[in-house]
Design a protein that fits this description.
FAD/NAD(P)-binding domain; 25% strand; 491 residues; alpha+beta; oxidoreductase; 8-stranded mixed beta sheet
Length: 491
């Protein structure tokens, strides 16, 4: 039988597919869209509120976006770029609130100060120098620094209470930070797609992707329970299936996926709902990563707002699992190995001994040792108040490198076929926070003819598109104020 034909197939029910689907519906409302998600609901993997830190990554507090060079110099360009990308997301979400696509903003985003907290004279010096650079940048307007325990106590008392006197500490704070529930945001975007006629198929797994003679794709699927396998033909396919994107793109056999592998990292968080503890902390506080730790394992003590209820989260405690999804298979990693990616994967293993040593140490760490790490941030932490929860599974990108043979890449990467008929997203943080600019780049690459028209509409929703807010202080201030008002982020 000839398969059903649609314009767009979205594989995966996370924030990336939801963002791309909403954009296409707004820009090209006559296109047909089908969504396949293998689980019983959206956002049950990496986009789920309890599977990620929900930071709203804007580099306001994350030190890994502004590392210290071998000569001690600090380079802010990556931090500025991450912040620019998050402002694009904020503008898009603001427009969707105004259009009625998204519900009340409190359902998915809340104002939460972003802080950095460090210990030891060397780290205090680093943080002071970072502050002196960033305070001059328009997008970091309002950032504060203090090495006075009394001031830091006013900002976040749990960081200072019962801490040893005389310890060298410092912190920065910026009030324009946010807490984002990407699970709620994902659900709202898919609700919009459903209302506007998209075909949503849950508990349906994509098992094959094959290029058709006319350039479209046959997407083979199987329902989770007792369903007969069937196929759908699509002019364009986006694979936004989290860690499972790699094996699906391998099945597509596009040459662009050759040489890519995946390095899965699991983890855990401490969580408390004790109202007496939660009431004493209102911030997302990032520290400095341990030696050998991946950037996504930077310790942080976070205020989280999920379904209107505040909790505190601390972690993550990294570990290793061969699964590519939290609900994946232990065979995911071995089954992803191909002759073309074996060399890069072995090169990564050779060059990342510190990371492997760190992960082994994390795997062997007892709950008592994990609690000790929490107490480095919060000396008064009581074991009875905190429970361990399993974090989302992250699959970092491994790819070929001309010099090293292979490199481990932290971040996200879009893999696109030469003809633009299929694309997929690999990698992790800060993906969710930068979903909007990532998907705009995808539209520009995969639909060059349509994009010229779409760009006009996108600029109405995202005024800074194509420019750098940080180059224009008045534009940066206007954008921050406008989105804060629409998203109700003003305290």
């Amino acid at each position: 039988m000839r398969p059903n034909s649609v314009d767009v197939v979205l594989v995966g029910g996370g924030i990336m597919s939801a963002t791309l689907g909403a954009m296409i519906r707004l820009l090209q409302p006559d296109w047909t869209i089908t969504v396949f998600e293998q689980l019983s609901d959206f956002a049950l993997e990496s986009s789920n509120a309890w599977n990620n830190a929900g930071t709203g990554h804007a580099a306001l507090a994350e030190l890994n976006y502004m590392p210290e060079g071998p000569d001690g110099a600090l380079e802010p360009s990556k931090a500025l770029n991450i912040n620019e990308q998050f402002q694009v997301s904020r503008q898009f979400w603001s427009s969707l609130v105004n259009l009625g696509v998204l519900p009340e903003p409190e359902a998915f985003i809340n104002p939460t100060p972003h802080m950095t907290f460090v210990r030891g004279e060397k780290n205090v010096d680093y943080l002071r120098r970072r502050f002196e650079i960033l305070r001059e940048e328009p997008l970091f307007a309002g950032i504060e620094f203090s090495d006075d325990p009394r001031v830091i106590y006013q900002w976040a008392p749990l960081l200072v209470r019962d801490r040893a006197k005389g310890e060298s500490i410092a912190a920065t704070r910026i009030m324009s930070g946010t807490d984002v529930d990407f699970g709620a945001l994902t659900h709202s975007l898919f609700d919009y797609l459903k209302r506007t006629g998209a075909d949503i198929r849950l508990e349906t797994r994509v098992v094959g992707l094959k290029k058709r003679p006319d350039g479209s794709w046959t997407v083979r699927v199987r329902e989770a329970v007792g369903g007969t396998p069937y196929s759908v033909a699509a002019r364009f396919v986006f694979v936004g299936a989290g860690g499972h994107a790699l094996p699906l793109l391998q099945k597509s056999r596009i040459p662009e996926i050759r040489g890519f592998g995946g390095f899965p990292i699991s983890g855990m968080f401490f969580k408390t709902d004790n109202p007496e503890v939660v009431a004493q902390h209102d911030a997302k506080v990032y520290g400095k990563a341990s030696v050998g730790a991946p950037p996504m394992s930077v310790p942080h003590l976070d205020t989280r707002v999920v379904n209107g209820k505040s909790s505190l989260l601390f972690g993550p405690y990294a570990g290793f699992s061969p699964k590519f999804l939290k609900r994946g298979s232990f065979l995911d990693l071995p089954l992803s190995i191909r002759p073309h990616n074996l060399g890069p994967m072995l090169a990564v293993a050779r060059d990342n001994f510190d990371l492997i040593k760190y992960l082994v140490g994390e795997l062997l760490a007892s709950k008592k040792k994990k609690l000790a790490a929490l107490r480095e941030f919060m000396p008064t932490a009581e074991a009875a108040d905190w429970q361990l929860i399993t974090a989302g599974q992250r699959v970092q990108v491994m790819k070929k490198d001309a010099n090293k043979g292979g490199v481990l890449q932290f971040g996200t990467e879009v893999i696109t076929a030469a003809d633009g008929s299929i694309a997929g997203l690999l990698g992790a943080s800060p993906g969710a926070s930068t979903a909007v600019p990532i998907m705009i780049d995808l539209l520009r690459t995969c639909f060059p003819e349509e994009y010229a028209t779409w760009e006009v509409q996108l600029k109405r929703m995202i005024p800074s598109l194509g420019s750098q807010l940080n180059d224009d202080p008045s534009a940066a201030e206007e954008s921050l104020v406008m989105t804060a008002d629409t998203l109700r982020l003003t305290r």
